[in-house]
Amino acid sequence: MFPNHLVKKASVVSVAVLAAALFAPLGQTQADVAMPNPPEFPFENPMLVDQDTLGKFLFWDEQMSSDNTVACGTCHIHEAGGSDPRSILGTNPNPGPDGVQFTADDIFGSPGVVHMDANHDYVAGDVHFPQPRVTGRKTPSSINAVYNNLNFWDGRALDAFTDPQTGLVEIGYLGALESQAVGPPNSDVEMAREGRDWDDITDKLALVKPMALGTNLPTDMADFLATYPTYPEMFTQVYGDPAITSKRVAFAIANYERTLISDETPLDAFLKGEAVDLGPFEAGFQLFKGDAFCTSCHVLPFTANDGFHNIGVRPDAEDIGREAITLDPADTAKFKTPNLRNAKLRVPLFHNGGKNSIEEVVDFYDIGGDFPGINLDPDLLVLNLAPQDRLDLIAFVEDGLLDPRVENGLFPFTRPTLASELPSANSVYGVASLSGVGVPPDLLAHVPANQGHPNWLLGVYNATPAAGAVVALSFGSDDGSPFPDPRFPIPMNVDVTSLISIIPATTDGVGTGTVKLSIPINPVLSGMKIYAQWFITDAAAVATGGFYGSEGVEVELL
Questions:
Q1: Could you give the maximum distance between any two Cα atoms of the chain, in Å?
Q2: d(C-alpha 141, C-alpha 338), whole Å
Q3: Residue 176 near residue 192, CB atoms below 8 Å
Q4: Under DSSP, is residue 482 helix (H, G, I), strand (E, B) or coil?
């Protein structure tokens, strides 16, 4: 056990009370029961002093990813209901089972990282390149996820948590948050290069500056960072020594997420006895509990039931859902019931992001689903709602279940600003020249160049395959005009008179290349700008002397 002085004092609900609420008979409402807050913690992971703040750093730090572009919080924005506001854009959807984007089976998941192999080299060829890969399901909410006994849409994050570094079961029950937390950092779609493991992650955390890319840190984070400026010091404060392990990371992130409880909606005011009814949302609430059969799955007070259901969102064969985990055909195309608090903020909705508003979801249920299935939920009925009933139900789900703290980013839903939410510090400029077949190369230059980055990446694609190349780094830029020296008959986008380095490189068999640099931590580098340009050899580029160049990129060191 942990020393008593390190354990925060917090009342918890009993397992019996929580189980009774979660597993109430279908259709039973519990309007007289408020949500348990705080929730129950696993016996093996009590809340330690400052552990939630450490978890908040780890959750929002983009350095948790291989290329420093994605944090856990990138896909779990509080003001988007704990889900991903980028999913609705639809500019780079997951193509779904047909492998073709912009068709009916597209999935509006979360953009992750651009595909990288085990050497951190960019890999062209998938439908997304050069954009980030996209998850095969819409990001579930991290808010109120503490009340789930299983996490992810298919429930693969179990309540028994197994430490990925040791293989030991570290939590026997109530550990679904810990189980979920260790998945995305090693997913080569979400946050990682191929072959990444937890040793890579923990080694990296020992060296980087916490939240080096984040700005506008909330007071709790800013104060903690001022006192403990490195991750080893933070881990010492929480755990008693500086060791950074997958178990400790998962425990901290999970206990941070256990603070993300949305229970200040109009519904909650009623459930707590603070309001005698739901006022303008009362009619919709009665429909929700009654003729609309919503509480068959969205059981109160949680507005979820920790269960899995096939409701005909898409044809069964497109995504077999829970069956992939249980191997039971009875689970074909079943997906986890999401809680409905703040659903208005989480659009698009459903596991595929296929509905763009609460109105569309209500209309979906009104007709009894979009697609037949071999095991559609028996409570999925054609409702044929009257026009006013439809409006009342929409109003209750949209605003009767909306927590203003979530919508407005108020405590405990305060957070930093991520670098990915701001204009890039890298700016492509200048003019590219043409290969021997008349094609200009393109730069892949989105990775931030922050101090302590062990693998800053600069890529090129659409270049000559299997070609020799160099990358020139300079303290100055050029205007893209041909350099007057006849040895350089192509546009020069870097100033060759202030060169820093010439880095040898090659392109692969499809014309993609990557250079990697380690950037030291040195305050002198802050705000410094460097300029880079790729040069590729091509014997067919006779007019330009057997080589050609990319555009330039201005890189601000952060």
A1: 85
A2: 8
A3: no
A4: strand
In tens, the pLDDT along 469-506 reads 999 999 999 866 555 556 668 889 999 889 999 999 99
198 is written with which tokens?
A: 């937890």
Helix (H) or strand (E) holding 226: helix 219-227
Contact between 128 and 93 (Cβ < 8 Å) = no
Q: Which two tokens stand for residue 144?
A: 């109120």
- Residue type present at position 379: D
Q: List the domain boundaries for the chain.
A: 266-407, 423-556
Tokens of 486: 């006849």
Bond preceding residue 348 cis, omega within 30 of 0: yes
Which position has the token pair 């990775």? 447
Evaluate whether 204 touches 63 at the Cβ level (below 8 Å).
yes
Q: How far apart are CA 51 and CA 178, in angstroms?
A: 14
Domain 266-407 sits in CATH at 1.10.760.10
CB 518, CB 455: distance < 8 Å = yes
Q: Write phi, then psi, for 310 (nearest 5 degrees).
A: -100, 115
Instruction: Give the sign of the dihedral formed by CA 283, CA 285, CA 289, CA 294.
Output: positive
What is the identity of the amino acid at 267? L
161-213, pLDDT tens digit by residue? Answer: 999 999 999 999 999 999 999 999 999 999 999 999 999 999 999 999 999 99
In 221-354, which ranges are E strands?
Answer: 308-309, 335-336
Domain with residues 423-556, CATH architecture? Sandwich (2.60)
Strand partners for 171: 161
Query: Which residue, chain included where needed, has tokens 């459903």?
Result: 350
Which amino acid belongs to residue 543? A
